[in-house]
Amino acid sequence: MKNLIVSLFFLSMLLVFGSCGKSADLDANGIPGKLVVALYGSDDPGALRGAIKPFQQYLEKKLGMPVEFIYTTDYTSVIEALRSKKTHIAYLSPFSYVLASQTHDITPIITTGVDGKQSMYHSTIFTSIHSGINSIADLKARAKNITLCFADPASTSGHLIPRAYLTTIGLNPDNNVFKETIFAGNHVASVLSVTSDKVDVGCAATEFGLEIAERKGLVKKDQIRVLWQSEPIVGSPIVARNDLNKDFVKKIQNLYLNLAKDEPGIFLPYMKLLHPNPERYSYLTIQDSMYNGIRKIASGIKDLSVIK
Secretion signal: which residues (predicted)? Predict the structure, then answer.
């Protein structure tokens, strides 16, 4: 795992942010000449870019400056963008936020809410109905012959939470208890790796992996057997660098908070990529303390310190 994450860092720097130059520089008042926003590109980057474009144009109009969205292939790249100050605003998962907040001066400003309350989601460990693995007990008994698939190394529901659970039941992936442990890259890829019989068992978010794959017609519900599902996980944050002008950050925060009400034509298509009932969603404020539970779980991951 350690070598994988380190490799991702250097690849991220060279391929994603190497040409950004000084685009994220601030003036003496902490205001950029161009706002740069980094986010993980998801399993369908084309659809994401199309849904984000109207919001990008909206931000440019409201802020009176150019706005650039940088799409990455993993959360590690987003963390690197913050580390190297190549971005001002970033979309993170709860786990990648905990990783980034260890050494980076950032503050969570926005998260997604449903019906006026902070949204939650779940982690799932699953297999194909043809695998012959019917329970966690079967998984434990056959672990030495099983290939396990996580999503992204910095994913909460696709890595941290299922890894922590497996460790508590004596299946710590670091101890070579499985035949092989790999990363698929994202949640939907983890699902497809299982249904195509490339791996025996996968880990992903219920809502952003299994359900999205089903809605897109990539898999059928009866192809998957859920072995375990986590307790609710706190929603993902959008963060801002602390060296940004505070009034400028507040303005950005308010644009997000009012987006569902003021610009539903911009907000709903983006939410529809993630949720079947986008009209129930909006943006809400978030505090760092909401992620203390994730920090506690993450403290048990031995390679946590390699992400600086």
Answer: 1-18
